[in-house]
Design goal:
- By secondary structure, the protein is an alpha+beta fold.
- The chain folds into 3 domains: 127 residues, Methyltransferase, Cobalt-precorrin-4 Transmethylase, Domain 2, CATH 3.30.950; 165 residues, Heat Shock Protein 90 (2-Layer Sandwich); 42 residues, no CATH class.
- 33% of the residues lie in helices and 22% in strands.
- The strands form 6 sheets. A 6-stranded mixed beta sheet has the order 10-9-13-14-16-15.
- Strand 1, helix 1 and strand 2 form a beta-alpha-beta unit.
- Helix 7 packs antiparallel against helix 8 and helix 8 packs across helix 11.
- The longest helix is centred in the middle third of the chain and has 16 residues.
- It is globular.
- The two termini are 40 Å apart.
């Protein structure tokens, strides 16, 4: 028998379950604690017999994708051997500066928990409001005041952008000119964002259904934040913005999946208005009927949503916005939000807890197949390449690892290619094999 027992600091779990986000959140919002997977409630060590790597991946997904604000600095996991058996141990540190919640439920009774004895207690709405307002009163540093986690920074990409716009600067005073130093003369967090060493995950995720199953995750995050802004913008235009071309009474018409101008403006907002002091980063979520652009840390303390839409609110990252203005990435007119409203209405903007979401619905005409529109004579999907790429193969391999019974149709959806292209990739790859037949078979990576 294992000598631990459940307390306000210890949670024992026989196996991984979907209640893990609740348990981690409850420790974060209390005094921290430890979760052990592989020990029963009566303290019997049974271990994790099969696929311990899979359990760790699930735990990692919870930590990185299912809890807000970002908690990766306060939660870590490792494998221990207890009584000769492998268990997963999750250590959770307390954080009194933030109120944590399960992302999909937000700041609600189903999303906010605290540890109460050996159980997880759901907070009532008035308790949530009181605790959240308390976190707002904590003065948090700006990205200009925060010290970068690494001091070995270079700015080659940023300098290329500055040179292209003929913006002059002195080599010896570069950091001071662009306010890249904190009060102690060390590189600050904004310097990290603009450096060649910036290496945080900015994701474009595709979900099947309304946020059900994750079928594709593409990560950007190496180099200057403005470089990543352009990479994501180009990727969304070339890989995701499908165009249907058809002829109506002899006149060619193009129907795009969404308005690219409105999307770019939403993406600019996300990059410039995201609160990087929280070390959370903008994301793009793709659904069957819409895309959503998310930026974190946006709280309407002094500004109203209407002021934000009209472009008169103060940027969270003022100096970052000034540099973007000099590089012609943005302007001071507030025109961008007006373009979004003109195309999709004010309902495109939504604020959920501490997150600003811009929802861009898809053009139904672009989603129609040839079978449902007799006028459609040609279907073109703009793509960077129609050839098999290493990126496509890598995504397919990752999908198979997560779900060996995945179908070719689901693979095609994930890489935004046809099932014929998927089959061509599979035929050329010698180490992917389908074992069995029909629905009873599965994929094997040799």
């Amino acid at each position: 028998m294992f000598n631990y027992e459940e307390t306000d600091k210890i949670e024992l779990k026989e196996k991984y379950t979907d209640t893990l986000p609740k348990e981690i959140v409850s420790f974060l919002n209390a005094n921290g604690g430890t979760i052990v997977i592989g020990i029963t409630k009566d303290k019997k060590v049974i271990g994790i017999k099969n696929d311990i790597d899979g359990v760790q991946r699930k735990v990692s997904d919870v930590i990185t994708d299912q809890i807000s604000p970002r908690c990766i600095d306060f939660v870590n996991q490792h494998v221990e051997i207890i009584e000769g058996l492998q268990v997963v141990v999750i250590d959770v540190l307390p954080d009194n500066k933030n109120l944590y919640y399960i992302k999909k439920y937000g700041l609600s009774e189903n999303g906010v928990y605290v540890r109460n004895g050996s159980s997880c207690k759901s907070l009532l709405p008035n308790e949530i409001k009181a605790r959240y307002l308390k976190t707002l009163n904590i003065v948090k540093p700006t990205i200009e005041e925060m010290t970068s986690k690494t001091q070995k920074l270079t700015f080659n990409v940023l300098k290329i952008y500055l040179d292209e716009k003929q913006i002059s600067y002195e080599k010896d005073s570069f950091a001071e000119t662009f306010k890249l130093l904190d009060k102690d003369g060390k590189y600050n967090e904004m310097a990290y964002l603009l450096s060649d060493q910036f290496d945080e995950s900015i994701k474009v995720c595709r979900f099947k259904g309304d946020g059900g199953n994750l079928v594709m995750r593409k990560e950007f995050g190496k180099g200057c934040i403005f470089k990543i802004f352009n990479e994501v913008k180009d990727y969304m235009q070339s890989q995701q913005n499908i165009v249907k071309t058809y002829f109506d009474n002899g006149i060619r018409r193009d129907e795009y999946l969404y308005n690219q101008v409105a999307f770019v403006e939403a993406w600019k907002n996300a990059i410039l208005h995201n609160d990087y002091a929280e070390r959370q980063y903008p994301q793009i979520y793709l659904y069957d009927d819409r895309l959503e652009v998310l930026s974190h840390g946006y709280a309407l303390k002094n500004d109203t949503l209407d002021e934000f839409i009209r472009g008169v609110s103060r940027p969270i990252n003022l100096q970052l916005a000034k540099i973007a203005l000099n590089l012609d990435i943005t302007d001071q007119t507030g025109k961008g939000n007006k373009d979004i409203v003109r195309t999709y209405g004010k309902e495109a903007f939504d604020i959920l807890d501490n997150t600003l979401i811009v929802k861009i619905p898809y053009n139904e005409l672009a989603l129609e197949s040839n079978d449902t529109n007799d006028d459609v004579t040609h279907d073109v999907t703009h793509d960077v390449t129609h050839d098999v790429t290493q990126g496509d193969l890598a995504i397919i391999i990752e999908l198979i690892r997560k779900n060996p019974k995945i179908t070719r149709e689901e693979m095609a959806l994930a890489i935004n290619k046809t099932t014929r292209t998927v089959q061509r990739i599979l035929n050329k790859c010698e180490y992917i094999e389908y074992v069995g037949s029909g629905d009873k078979g599965h994929w094997v990576i040799k």
